[in-house]
Amino acid sequence: MDQILFNLSLLGEYPIVNLKIVLDGVMIGALFALAAYGLALVWGVMNVKNLAQGDFVIAGGYVSWWLANQGVHPLLGVPAAFVVMWCIGWVAYKLVISRVVEKDLFTSLLATFGIAIMMAQILNLLFGSDTQSIKLDYDTLYFFDGFIDVPIAKLLGVLLATTLAACVVIFMKSSRMGQAIRATAQDARAARVLGIDTEKVYAFTFSLNSAICGAAGAIIVMVWVIQPFYGITHSIRAFVIVTAAGLGNLPGVIAAGLGIGALEQYGSHIFGIGYQQAIAVMLLLAVLLFRLIQQRRVRKSLQ
Amino acid sequence: MKTRKLILYGAALLFTLLAPFVMPDFKTQLATLWLMIIVALTWDMTGGQMGYNSLGNIFFYGTGMYVAAVICIALTHDVGEYTNAFGDHVYRFTDAQYFTGVALGILGAGVFCSVTALIIGYLTFGLRGPYFAIGTLGVAIAAGELVSNWDWVGGGQGISLPVFPYDLEQGKIFFYALFAATGTVIFIFLRWLYTTRFGAAINAIRDDEEKAEAMGIHTLRYKLTTWSIAAFFVGVAGGISAFQLIHFEPLETAYQTINLGIFMVVCVLLGGKGTLWGPVIGAIVFHLFKEVTWNYLLGWQWVALGALIVVTVVYFRDGIMGWLMHVRPEWFGIRVEKKTGEAMQEAGA
């Protein structure tokens, strides 16, 4: 308790620390937003709630980490992870997801939970349970007498994430496939009537989501750490963000992602690093409760 | 029909009573089997009969463990000192203290869990479908993480409890008996409950909650009651487990979200959701599968578990009972009208 009060007083005494925490949080939050955008895409288009989201992220991280160990430049790991995870996502769609798209939501939730357990364990068997990261030998920028340190690697990560997000948004807006995806999200039946092969759209959407997650993971491994069992926390973060922002609300997803990154950093600064997982989950509960109270006012339930 | 059922139940009861003596090497496995049956039956109360798929019932198991342990220790010692002793002080429990601790601990665990279920349920029962599943999963994960940071109950180290004071083999039978008794009680209780108006009401909630409410069923009250009954029994099971395992720690044993927490769901889905016998059969099949294959899979057992979940959910959604009902409807007293063509043929032949 004293420690918590001390940490709080530190924030008041040195306002510059706040800036550092927010900056750190925003940089990591950009990556959360990326994974959450993928979740919102799959959720909105095919109504599948993917609990394996975080494990796709971690798997992408391992692809990049493995390549870096083979001597490939870490930045090339991002497109590599994108491609590899695209293929894995496609296989997962054909084997499992295609059969649960039309079923009730708990089925898809449980099926993807099964995939999540499998992926976490396979990664654990392949790469061991140690935390891994890639060290990039770039400089660190210092501001305010060294109070704030911004590694260029992290800036690069944010830049990559932004580029990827921008590409995806432009793709969704202007390409034929993007239009087909949006049409399917609005009304799958009408889309079928109008000659859109929704099965193909679903497969494409799920693969795209998996690839986005993979790329996010490849960036996360450069700026943070990965571990086979961190997947579930990433999934929960993605859920928090999408639940807070709502579906089809891109600015909301970005804002929620950055906000959650910052809140988590604040939480682990105040309560200690041991609470990081707990804070992510508590944020989920807080968001769910908030949305619930919102819905209760209009006598509805969250479904 | 009546006598056949009686024979079936008689045989099951006889097997329950004799099993630890017929198979003396498997007492602990049999006790675990009963644990699975208990958690599967209680999961099915909300998941199968009421349509609220919780992924967080393991929360009550872990909480039950901790409550039972704390009660047992607090009766005679100071909990904070006990959990932070790290072996430099020997704490003794007399036989009488041990058994009072076990009895009060298990009961207290059940009561505490059912009260907690009322509170959590009040907050989360506005969530439907997947939100409820994720919300309850969140509760379980958060509880595990918070408890592992709570030094008063031993933090990440967990708690060690006193050992059964007599012969170890007797201890195994003692814990088997506790699990079996709890399992039998809940089975008989549910068998009765599902035939009452209460059972019909929770089934109505599953089928269409809005209509059920329009029919005058106070849905929240029914949901809370059901969940708190389920939580009571899971808490009791957790309490028994605490004394059986002697030592436990928060993340892997107590709030074991991806072990027992998901096993119970798999058991129910495998056996058949929303049936009385489904969870029991599912638990037996799953436990046998797990015990037989686990040791030969060398690290791949979790992959196999994930695959089992996926296969069950995707390809075998009605479970064993649902499949039986489909191929042998007459066993369940369902009369199927023959198609007129077939009936005519039969008459002609």
Low-pLDDT ranges of chain B: none
Mean pLDDT of chain A: 86
Let me know the largest β-sheet of chain A: 2 strands, antiparallel
For the biggest β-sheet of chain B, the strand order reads 1-2
Please state how the strands of the largest beta sheet of chain A are arranged side by side. 1-2
Oligomer: heterodimer
Q: Percent of residues of chain B in beta strands?
A: under 5%
Sketch the major β-sheet of chain B: 2 strands, antiparallel
Structural class of chain A: mainly alpha
| Binned strand content of chain A | under 5%
Number of domains of chain B: 2
Largest interface: A-B, 45 and 39 residues
The average pLDDT score of chain B comes to 85
Give me the strand/helix succession of chain A: HHHHHEEHHHHHHH
- Helix count of chain B? 16
Radius of gyration of chain A: 20 Å
Number of domains of chain A: 1
End-to-end separation of chain A: 38 Å
Shape by Cα distribution of chain A: globular
Question: Which features would summarize this protein structure in a list?
Answer:
heterodimer; A: 303 residues; mainly alpha; two-stranded antiparallel sheet; 12 helices; globular; B: 349 residues; 2 domains; 16 helices
Folded structure, characterized:
- The complex is a heterodimer of chains A (303) and B (349).
- Chain A has one domain (2-297).
- In chain A, 78% of the residues lie in helices and 3% in strands.
- Chain A has helices spanning 2-13, 15-46, 53-69, 74-100, 105-127, 152-174, 176-186, 188-193, 198-223, 231-245, 250-271, 276-297, and strands spanning 140-143, 148-151.
- In chain A, strands 1-2 form a two-stranded antiparallel sheet.
- In chain A, helix 4 packs antiparallel against helix 5 (105-127).
- Chain B is an all-alpha fold.
- Chain B has 2 domains: 37-257, no CATH class; 262-349, no CATH class.
- In chain B, strands 1-2 form a two-stranded antiparallel ribbon.
- The longest helix of chain B has 30 residues, at 95-124.
- The radius of gyration of chain B is 22 Å and the shape is globular.
- The interface between A and B is large, with 45 and 39 residues.
